[in-house]
Amino acid sequence: MAVGNSNGDIHMLKYANGHQGLTLGLLVHHDDPEREYAYDDGAEKALQLAPQAGWIVVSMKNDWKTVFSSSAE
Q1: Between 25 and which of 1, 55, 57, 58 could a Cys-Cys bridge form, CB atoms 3.0 to 4.6 Å apart?
Q2: Is the pTM above the cut of 0.90?
């Protein structure tokens, strides 16, 4: 399993998914300007490769109910 959010994580994601058996590659897409920063700078290539590489793209905007919590527990 590997989780990344930038082009610098491409090799790690490829390595994690490049084995037989169960693997998981997740790419976090920072696309929620309301609750966090929306940016693709530095992740353009990873986002392009994700579909063909079999990585799951997780959208902060569409897939996360909570991005950050300000409550201290």
Answers
A1: 55
A2: no
Contacts of 3 by beta carbon, 8 Å cutoff, 6+ apart? 9, 25, 26, 27, 28
**What is the layout of strands, in order, in the sheet containing 25-29?**
2-4, 25-29, 56-59
Instruction: Name residue, tokens 């994690």.
Output: 16
Structure tokens at 27: 């790419």
Tell me which residue has tokens 């490769």: 49
pLDDT tens sequence across 31-54: 999 888 888 899 999 999 999 999
**12-21 long-range Cβ contacts below 8 angstroms, 24+ apart:** 13/46, 13/53, 13/55, 14/53, 17/53, 17/54, 17/55
Integer angstrom CA distances of residue 43 from 9, 49, 61, 71: 9, 10, 16, 30
